[in-house]
Specification:
The complex is a heterotrimer of chains A (about 210), B (about 180) and C (about 550). By secondary structure, chain A is α/β, with parallel strands linked by helices. Chain A has a single domain (about 35-170, about 180-210), classed as 3-Layer(aba) Sandwich (Rossmann fold), CATH 3.40.50. Chain A has helices at about 5-20, 75-85, 100-110, 150-165, 180-195, and strands at about 35-40, 50-55, 90-95, 115-120, 125-130, 140-145, 205-210. Chain B is mostly helical and about 180 residues long. Chain B is about 55% helix and about 0% strand. Chain B contains 9 helices and no strands. Chain B has helices at about 10-25, 50-55, 55-60, 80, 95-105, 110-125, 130-140, 145-160, 160-180. Chain B is flat. The two termini of chain B are about 40 Å apart. With about 550 residues, chain C is an alpha/beta fold. Chain C has a domain at about 45-135: lyase (Annexin V, domain 1), CATH 1.10.220.70. Chain C has helices spanning about 5-15, 65-70, 75-80, 85-95, 100-105, 110-120, 125-135, 155-165, 180-195, 205-215, 230-235, 240-255, 265-270, 280-290, 315-325, 345-355, 385-395, 405-425, 435-445, 455-470, 470-480, 485-500, 535-545, and strands at about 45, 50-55, 55, 145, 170-175, 200-205, 220-225, 255-260, 295-300, 330-335, 365, 510, 515. In chain C, helix 14 runs parallel beside helix 15. Classes of the chains: A alpha/beta (about 210), B mainly alpha (about 180), C alpha/beta (about 550). Chains in contact: A-B, A-C, B-C. The interface between B and C is large, with 82 and 89 residues.
Chain lengths: ~210, ~180, ~550
């Protein structure tokens, strides 16, 4: 893939378009629909030991609607939730407004989780399984190369998170590595992350979401 | 990334967009500045050891090198380790050695490095666990100002760590002014 | 286009055209160096305090300004050097008649914007000249990455041994799965000393865990202690200049060498570059490092190399940041450790910038595994490039700190390293290393040839090992007990290095007799032709002698 001037412009245009809620965009076939997520109040620490909390940044499913390899955010959440439910556990989704850093988002989710296990997912797909007792930038499992995080990875991530929550010691989701991801994607990832951080507000609390 | 079909967007709109991006990015990034308390290390030459004459200590001044428990380098042998006569605490650096190394750094024209070694000399007295805890306390949003000031007091009174205490007090002031203390 | 021109079709298929390039977007800081948005150099000092710096009043200083003003800038010389013309200073950097000491004396009085103003005057050849003259240690060295995608312990030990045999003075691992860290560190500790006594080893993971492993004697130094050039990115990295300085002293207090890591592009990559150029922000990182009294820095963009690599003059800026580091009298581990291009031509050109002048560590992570196993997401060069590197040294009579080795000796040290590891695993009650694993690791190209290990079992055993408080001394005992006396002796000698603290000094490494070599006892003495480090004598004889060269007697 080549990051051309047109693509940069495209991204700028996309940001512009998405920052104006009224602007029409149905003529963009590959553009995923924004997520139907409703805020239902401030996020609280759960008491249910059978839950995993998923944390997402402000732009997720909002001004950004798909990962760096074009997986719609709706499908991302669907797969993670399915993975958790397969193990018989429940999930809650929270929006962390104060940071766009995947480690901190995952840690915030873990701290809110009744089981102490949380998942952080940022818009381009970089993800983490986190535990309450770890330092924010430690992790149980880290999916650091967003171009390698696929649909099936999200389900496996949900499943493993649920297993940690049940006190099991699962085999980590197989680690993947592509040395050529950087030359292909890093410039683009930088652009996307600048877009991601636009909505961050240090003073705004984390809120609980419901799928509409 | 999906190819854009919004190609009728004008250059002016792009320019506006960029401005908007910028103004958003600039928000929340100006806050009152901090006053610093420490001066940068300046002139060298308080020490006595000399880089050319005494370095490396292990070969040129083994008489000065002892471990934290008082062993000389020659006392630390494989035989003694096998025999279980050496414990991990016997192979730790002691504050005097770090002071000597600080003097060598100064004589080699590196006052900044010497200052770090002197902080380190103080920290040899602090247990591993507590070092890690204090480090974590100094990370952003972990402590209130009062908590940081209490750590500074502890550093001074329990570990005679005056330079470290000054560093923590300075951090407390800067974090307060930059809004990086624990949020209520 | 209706009809393609065939040459353009061919060009379109070339590797370089798979790379991502972006045009400058200076408003968000997507610009390498010399942005019109960078501040102009200035300073005002009152009563020995910096009251204004680069156009910003003290009252408006952010955390990084505050740190630099209080801890880095030596006010005694600041007014002198800030009054000098930047072009004059730039010329001093390349003038063989101006000694290194004079430049270093002045550099501690410069502000970040002044550094940029000086460095932007130099083209890449002049920057290389400055590097040759200004780096701290006389003899160049190298660092290798030792990792694999399976976190396979036997393979890590074998690769560590081969890497150190080949001449790397420092080796670095990281993890696929975070909780593997202590086991990976153990593999490098044992494998590294098996290949060449005196090599330093580290394990790059989260800060607090990394320090814990160092305190226990499982590593010798630390490097991935990241600093950033804007306050918001620093905080997103979960630190401040104060917490990082405390951490730096914590390492020294346990007798452990450490350097910071930073690099152009990280701030814009993390979304908060405040519209400044990558080089300007990187200079701030270098000055944060200097102020903390840390002996050195890994930079050269490092994991963000795709960002400067995508904009104009980005690779020049990367060399300029290396030069700014040595200008601050710091050790530099100069990058060349992350893939940034599909093009072998670009790749080599980028590496020559550090190889030709020589740096403290030309590569801060040559991949000692095939790149598919490189868990730093790939390096510029890997095991398959070893012979090219040996020939480059021979062609140019320039030292990359690698040496020719025979297949027999590589097989021997790989095997020995895994056997030593097997013994230690047994003594420390870690899951067994099988004979099949030893055989596979000895002869493997990469982890594709390695059998899978039982990951949950490994992780459980690692947690248990850490809670039991296993230290480097237990490793010494285990090795000695099982007949690996020479390796045991080396691991112990490295622990003794922490007692004397000699390797806490700038640019320190050990030779194979555990003698420290640093900027203190091997200072760079380059003052023009006939001075400084020269590849000659015995070492040149060794590097000339590549196995594939035909001798006259043989034909």
């Amino acid at each position: 893939m080549k990051i051309s001037e047109d693509m940069v412009k495209g991204i700028i245009l996309e940001v512009l378009q998405q920052m104006k809620p009224s602007s029409p965009g149905p003529d963009r076939p590959t553009q995923a629909a924004p997520l139907q997520l409703r805020e239902i109040g401030p996020a609280v620490v759960g008491k249910d030991k059978n839950e995993v909390v998923i944390g997402i940044p402000p732009a997720f499913g909002n001004t950004m609607t798909q990962t760096i390899i074009h997986i719609p955010h709706q499908e991302v959440l669907r797969e993670v939730l399915a993975g958790i439910e397969e193990e018989g556990l429940k999930a809650r989704i929270v929006r962390v407004n104060k940071t766009a850093d995947v480690g901190f988002i995952g840690h915030e989710a873990a701290k809110l989780s009744g089981s102490g296990i949380g998942i952080g997912i940022i818009s381009r797909g970089t993800s983490v399984i986190h535990q309450r007792d770890l330092a924010p930038l430690q992790n149980l499992e880290l999916f650091s190369q967003s171009p390698l995080v696929e649909l099936s990875t999200f389900r496996a991530m949900g499943k493993n998170a649920a297993k940690y929550a049940k006190g099991e010691n699962p085999t980590p989701v197989p680690v993947r590595n592509d040395p050529m991801a950087r030359p292909k994607y890093q410039g683009l990832a930088a652009l996307l992350h600048n877009k991601e951080t636009l909505l961050v507000n240090r003073d705004q609390p984390t809120v609980e979401l419901a799928m509409a | 990334m999906a190819p854009s079909t919004q190609s009728n967007m004008s250059p002016d709109a792009i320019a506006d967009m960029v401005k908007q991006v910028l103004s958003n990015m600039a928000q929340g990034q100006s806050a009152p500045a901090a006053a610093s308390t420490e001066a940068a290390p300046s002139a060298p030459a308080s020490g006595h050891l000399d880089a050319a004459r005494d370095y490396p200590l292990a070969s040129k001044r083994p008489d000065l090198v002892q471990s934290a428990s008082g062993l000389q380098l020659n006392d630390i042998t494989l035989e003694k380790v096998i025999a279980g006569e050496i414990e991990f605490k016997d192979i730790k650096i002691r504050p005097e050695t770090l002071e000597y190394q600080a003097q060598i750094a100064e004589s080699a024209g590196r006052p900044h490095l010497a200052a770090n070694m002197r902080r380190a000399a103080e920290m040899t007295r602090i247990p591993d666990e507590r070092v890690l805890e204090i480090y974590n306390s100094l990370r952003p949003y972990r402590c209130s100002k009062q908590e940081l000031l209490e750590i500074a007091t502890e550093l001074e009174s329990q570990y005679q760590a005056k330079i470290c205490a000054a560093l923590v007090r300075e951090a407390a002031d800067v974090y307060e002014k930059r809004g990086r203390l624990k949020q209520p | 286009m209706a009809k393609r021109q065939k040459r353009f079709e061919v060009l379109g298929e070339r590797a370089v055209n798979q790379d991502g390039f972006i045009k400058e977007w200076m408003e968000v800081g997507l610009i390498a160096m010399d942005s019109p948005q960078d501040p102009r150099p200035s300073i005002r000092i009152e009563n020995g305090k910096v009251m204004e710096m680069d156009g910003r009043e003290r009252a408006e200083f952010d955390m990084i300004d505050d740190w630099i003003a209080a801890h880095t800038i030596v006010t005694d010389v600041a007014e002198e050097v800030m009054a000098m013309d930047s072009l004059t200073i730039a010329r001093m950097l390349v003038d063989i008649n101006v000694p290194r000491e004079e430049i270093v004396r002045l550099s501690v009085g410069m502000t970040p914007a002044k550094y940029v103003d000086v460095l932007k005057q130099l083209n890449v050849v002049e920057l290389m000249m400055a590097m040759q003259k200004l780096r701290s240690r006389r003899a160049p060295a190298n660092q290798a990455h030792v990792t694999n995608v399976k976190d396979s312990a036997p393979l890590l030990a074998a690769d560590a041994a081969e890497a150190t045999l080949r001449g790397f003075a420092e080796i670095e691992t990281t993890v696929g799965v975070g909780r593997y860290a202590p086991m990976n560190a153990l593999c490098l500790l044992i494998g590294g000393q098996t290949g060449r006594p005196g090599v330093l080893a580290q394990c790059a993971v989260e800060e607090a865990l990394e320090l814990t492993m160092g305190m226990r004697g499982l590593t010798h130094y630390a490097e991935t202690v990241s600093v950033y050039g804007t306050e918001q990115v620093f905080v997103d990295g979960d630190d401040t200049p104060w917490s990082k300085a405390f951490l730096a002293s914590a390492y020294a207090s346990r007798g452990l060498k450490m350097r910071y890591t930073s690099g152009t592009g990280s701030e814009v990559q993390m979304g908060y570059a405040e519209g400044k150029s990558m080089l300007y922000l990187e200079i701030r990182c270098i000055m944060v490092t200097k102020g903390a009294g840390v002996q050195g820095l890994q930079n050269g963009s490092i994991s963000c190399i795709g960002v400067p690599g995508a904009v104009p003059a980005g690779i020049r800026a990367v060399l300029a940041e290396n030069v700014a580091t040595v200008l601050n009298d710091l050790e530099v581990a100069s990058g060349n450790d992350q893939t940034f291009t599909h093009s072998p031509i670009r790749n080599t050109a980028r590496m020559l910038m550090q190889f030709l002048p020589g740096t403290d560590f030309i590569f801060s992570g040559y991949s000692a595994s095939p790149n598919y196993d490189n868990m730093f997401a790939g390096s510029t060069h890997d095991v398959d490039d070893y012979d090219d590197m040996l020939v480059l040294q021979r062609d140019l009579q320039a030292d990359m700190a690698l040496k020719p080795v025979s297949e027999e000796e590589v097989i021997a040290v790989r095997n020995k390293a895994v056997r030593a590891l097997q013994a230690v695993f047994e003594e420390l009650r870690l899951p067994a290393i099988t004979e099949a694993e030893i055989e596979a690791a000895t002869y493997a190209h990469g982890s594709k040839e390695m059998p899978d290990r039982n990951v949950p079992e490994d992780l459980r055993a690692i947690d248990e090992m850490m809670s039991r408080g296993v230290t480097g001394l237990d490793v010494v005992q285990a090795l000695a007990k099982r007949g690996f006396r020479d390796v045991a002796e080396s691991v112990l000698n490295m622990l003794k290095g922490k007692v004397s603290g000699d390797y806490l000094h700038t640019s320190a490494i050990f030779d194979d007799q555990f003698n420290v070599i640093s900027a203190v006892n091997d200072p760079n003495n380059y003052t023009g032709p006939g001075t400084g480090y020269r590849l000659e004598g015995e070492r040149w004889e060794m590097l000339k002698d590549i196995p594939s060269a035909i001798s006259p007697e043989d034909v």
